[in-house]
Specification:
14 strands; 26% strand; Enolase-like, domain 1; single chain; binds flavin-adenine dinucleotide; alpha+beta; Uridine Diphospho-n-acetylenolpyruvylglucosamine Reductase, domain 3
Length: 290
């Protein structure tokens, strides 16, 4: 399979990239790691006439603390996120999720910004962003704006981005003391997209759950934050009965579609199992974070 004809641009600055997007509008597309866009172009599911390569754009590659949040640049690659010490210390959920994306070669090319903009419902990083309540920083030639991850994902492969906009960075809240985080997913083969994925963050105080954030991916068109369920289940002892109760409630809270390969009931059962596994791991880790 081969892509349609396109003109290739390789701007060196963000302003130049934004200028090209403003000039060409719907006809242009940014390319970062190319791990989603190139297959789509080869299948002619995407046919941009102007391809704007972000590979040389400076300033999108840092991982740093800003205003008490962990800021990750849009062009940071999945493997860099997985290996980074700041990520590991302040946002372990992000590192754990990134380490399970596709295969090593894909993680060496794919980027945070590309994953969020592509907005696959089964992708790891959109689920982490929604679960933790990350903020997405967006730029265009018209200016900058910040969008909450929960407002960014609109539907399958559809986001709040306008054609002339780029993601420049994502800010993640950092994990507190006694807060444990865990990501778990199920797929049939290593490297495949998840059939169900779960992200959990549990903060403990004196053995009780003081704060819970729980997200489920791959079951609905956008990553699902189970906010009401989490609020209802806080304040109780973080024991096996609590884990089983939350897992059953999560199973009931999702509305997966029946598809001919994967019945909705199967996704519900997997959700219950994956939530229980993620919560167990998160609670164990919370105890190790004084
Ligand atoms: C075999 C295979 C297995 C995979 N498995 C997984 C998996 O298990 N989990 C998973 O999450 N992903 C998986 N992926 C996808 C991979 O993670 C991609 O890296 C990711 O989806 C897109 O990142 P990218 O940088 O490659 O983006 P690109 O492919 O370059 O671009 C994707 C989209 O994002 C847009 N874009 C890129 N950067 C920006 C930006 N800064 N601002 C605005 N728009 C931007 C592009 O215009 C395009 O629409 C897999 C891919 C392959 C080929």
């Amino acid at each position: 399979m081969k892509p349609g004809a396109f003109r290739y641009h390789r701007p060196a600055t963000l302003d130049a990239a934004l200028g090209l997007l403003a000039e060409h509008g719907d006809a242009a597309k940014a390319i970062a790691g190319g791990q989603s866009l190139v297959p789509m172009m080869n299948l002619r599911l995407a046919q941009p006439a102007e391809l704007v390569d972000l590979g040389d754009v400076a300033g999108l590659e840092s991982i740093r603390m800003v205003d008490g949040m962990l800021e990750v640049g849009a062009r940071v690659r999945h493997q860099t996120v997985a290996d980074d010490e700041l990520v590991r210390r302040h946002c372990p959920l992000l590192g754990e999720a990134a380490s399970g994306i596709g295969h090593y070669a894909i993680r060496q090319r794919g980027t945070l910004g590309g994953s969020l903009a592509h907005a696959d419902p089964a992708a790891q990083l959109p689920l982490v962003a929604v679960t933790l309540g990350a903020e997405i920083e967006i730029a265009s030639a018209r200016g900058r704006r910040r969008v909450a991850a929960s407002d960014f994902f609109v539907s399958v492969m559809t986001t709040a981005l306008e054609p002339d906009e780029l993601i420049v960075a994502v800010r993640f809240p950092v994990a507190a003391a006694q807060e444990g985080q865990a990501y778990r997913h199920f797929n049939r083969r290593i490297g495949d997209y998840a059939i169900v994925s779960v992200a959990a963050s549990v903060r403990l105080r004196d053995g009780r759950v003081e704060h819970l954030r729980l997200g489920v991916g791959a079951v609905e068109p956008v990553p699902l934050l189970l906010g009401q369920l989490a609020a209802e289940k806080t304040g109780r002892s973080a024991d096996a009965a609590w884990i089983a109760d939350v897992a059953m409630a999560a199973r009931a809270a999702i509305q997966p579609d029946d598809d001919e390969r994967i019945p909705a009931l199967y996704r519900r059962e997997l959700t219950e199992t994956m939530v229980a596994r993620a919560l167990s791991a998160a609670i164990e880790r919370a105890g190790k974070r004084p």
